[in-house]
């Protein structure tokens, strides 16, 4: 199965683009639990990236800023992320560390 265009710019080391191909590890779980737009937002929000900007939406082929907004709202409603001091954080400490470690590689 080919990687979705919206995930093409997310490095394989982050476990997103290959998540639907290999049912081992957290990358596979992310691919099964979140939409592509949610997964992109989830990986980029902790970096302080402005996921509603036209540049971000275009780079990751999210369609519109409204799509990014819906993805973030869904993550907020599911208590995956929360707002803190004007930015977003991943609520689960271990999940946050796992994503941070993937961003450093």
What does this structure look like?
The protein has a two-stranded antiparallel sheet with strand order 1-2. It is globular. It is mainly α and 105 residues long. 46% of the residues lie in helices and 8% in strands. The chain has one domain: Arc Repressor Mutant, subunit A. The longest helix is centred in the last third of the chain and has 13 residues. The N terminus is likely disordered. It starts with 25 loop residues before the first helix and ends with a helix.
Quick rundown:
With 105 residues, this protein is mainly alpha-helical.
Structural class: mainly alpha
Uncertain runs are 1-23
Question: How many domains, in number, for the residues?
Answer: 1
CATH secondary-structure class: Mainly Alpha
Q: What structural keywords apply?
A:
two-stranded antiparallel ribbon, 105 residues, 46% helix, 8% strand, disordered N terminus, mainly alpha, 5 helices, Arc Repressor Mutant, subunit A
Secondary structure topology:
Blueprint: H1 26-33, H2 36-44, H3 54-59, H4 65-77, E1 81-84, E2 87-90, H5 93-104
Antiparallel strand pairs: 1-2
Helix pairs in contact: 2-4
């Amino acid at each position: 199965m080919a990687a979705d265009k919206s995930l093409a710019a997310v490095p394989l080391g982050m476990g997103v683009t290959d998540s639907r191909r290999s049912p081992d590890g957290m990358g596979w779980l992310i691919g099964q639990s979140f939409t592509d737009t949610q997964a992109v937002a989830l990986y980029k929000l902790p970096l302080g990236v402005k996921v509603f900007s036209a540049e971000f939406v275009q780079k990751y082929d999210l369609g519109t800023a409204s799509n990014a907004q819906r993805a973030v709202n869904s993550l907020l409603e599911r208590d995956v992320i929360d707002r803190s001091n004007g930015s977003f954080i991943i609520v689960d400490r271990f999940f946050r560390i796992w994503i941070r470690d993937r961003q450093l590689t």
